[in-house]
Structures are given as C-alpha cells and as structure tokens.
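Request: Not sure, any thoughts?
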Amino acid sequence: MTERDKNLLNISWLCETAGVSRSGYYRWLNNIGIRDKKEEQDKKDFELILEAYKFRGYDKGSRGIHMRLLNQGIRMNRKKIQRLMVK
C-alpha cells in the first residue's frame, strides 16, 4: 500500500464514521475561504442591524429594522436580519 492509499483509506473511514460522503468532505474543505468571507460580511451586516435596532431608543423587531435599513438605502432580506438577530 502506498502512502496515498493509506490516507485515502483513513479519510474514507473517517467520512463513513461521520456519516458524510467523501465528495462532501472535500467540498467542505475547499470552501473554507468562502465561509470565512461570508462570516466577515455577516459581522458587517450585524453592525448595521445593531445601529438600526438602537435608533430612537426603543426596541424593534426584524420588520422595523428592515424598514429602517430601507430608509437608509440599504437592502437586506428580512430573513437574514432575523438570522443575524438570533445569532
């Protein structure tokens, strides 16, 4: 057995144990940079949401925040606002 075969066998075993496909594992492994960029964008968007939430000193829900962002010229999906508020 070559070194590559040993690594392939170990990865196959790990994927089988975790209940994921090998192709899914490699897709996840190759998308680390994309996930990091999305996380960074979420942090920036959360700052905008927090600013809109604190506007005028009273609590707002996702719809109020959505309307405030629209008034500022920022388009953001309300489901994304809800997801980031929960996070």
Q: What stands out?
A: The chain has a mean pLDDT of 88. DSSP finds five helices and no strands in the chain. The CA atoms of residues 5 and 55 lie 59 Å apart. The two ends are 47 Å apart (CA to CA).
